[in-house]
Amino acid sequence: MSITSHLSRTLTAKEIFDLVHQDLLRVEEEFRLESVASEDAVTKIAAHLQQSGGKRMRPTLVLLTSKLFPGRNPAASVQLAAVVELIHTATLIHDDVIDEAETRRGDASTNAIWGNQTSVLAGDWLYMQAFQIALRLRDFHLLDLLISLTQKMVEGELLQARLIGRMVEPHEYVELVDRKTASLFSACARLGAIAGNATEEEERRLGHFAWNLGMAFQLIDDILDFTATEEVLGKPVGSDLREGKMTLPLLAALENATSAERDAVSQVLEDRDYSRVPFARILEIVDSREGILHARQTAERYTAEANLLIAQFPESPAQRALQSIPDFIVQREF
Ligand code: IPE
Ligand code: IPE
Ligand code: MG
Ligand code: MG
C-alpha cells in the first residue's frame, strides 16, 4: 500500500475510539463529578443515564475537532466535551418525558423510574450545570453559543409538539431536525474549534461540517425507528408513528403510496397504537414505497457535504477520524 493510500483510508470505529479513548475517560470522570447535586435524585438520574450506555457521539466530536489544532487547550476540550454530554443528557430526559418513553439506552427511562416532575427538574439542573462548567472558561462567545443552542433545541421540541399527529411538509421536517439534532452537532464542532483556539472561519466551517453530520444522524435515527430491533437499538421501534411523529421515511413513502396505504398510516396516527394496523404493515409500506431508500439517500447527501467540508482541513489522525464519521453514521445499527 502506498503512503498516500494508507493516509487517505478511513478509520474503523475502533480506531476512531482509540484516538479519543483516554480523553473520553476524563470526560466520564468530569461528568460523574459534575453531576453530584445536594438532592440525591439528580445525582442518581445522571448516574443512571451515564451507566446505561450511549454512544458519546457528541463528546467525541468535540475532542476530535479540537485535535485538529496544535494550539488547543486539552483541559478545555475535555470540559467542553462533558458540557455537551450533560446538555445531551438533559435533552434526553426532557424528550422522554414529552414522548412518554419507557425505555432509553436499553434500560428504564428516567420518567419511568422517577416520574415526570423529578425528571424535568433533574433535566433543568443538568442544563444549568453544563452552563456552570462552561462559565469557568470565561468566554462570552462560548456562552452565547451554548445559550442560543439550548433555546434552539427547546424550540425544536416545541415545534415537534406542534406538528404531532399531522402530516408534515418536507421543509417543516428539515427545520425540526435542524433544531433538535443538527444544532447540537454543529455546536460540538464549534466548541472543539474554540478549545483548539481555531480561527472564526475554521470554527464556522467545522460547525457546518457537523451540522450536516447531525442532519444525517437524525435521518438514520428515524430510519432505525422502522428497521432496527429494540434489543439492538435500546429503545422501542415503531415509536415515532405511535407518538404521532411523521418522519422522512414515512413522508417519502406516502408520496408513492396507494390510498389504502395512506389510510393505514392515518389509522395509526389516529389510534396512537398498532392495534388495528400492525407495525409490520407500516414497515412494509415504508419499505416497498421506497421511504427507507429515499431517507437513506437524503442522509447520504448530507454526509457527502460533510465529507467535502472536512477534506479541506490538513491531513492528520484527527482529520482522518473525522473523515470516517460520516460513513460511521450512515452505517450504524443503533
Ligand atoms: C438520541 O441520540 C437522540 C437523537 C438525536 C436521535 P443518540 O443516538 O446519540 O443517543 P445516545 O447518547 O447514543 O444514547
Ligand atoms: C431526538 O428526537 C431529539 C432530542 C434532542 C432528544 P427523538 O425523539 O427521535 O429521539 P429518540 O428517538 O427518543 O432518541
Ligand atoms: Mg423521543
Ligand atoms: Mg427517534
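^ magnesium ion complex. The CA atoms of residues 86 and 130 lie 6 Å apart. Residues 95, 99, 101 surround magnesium ion (ligand 3) (CB under 6 Å).
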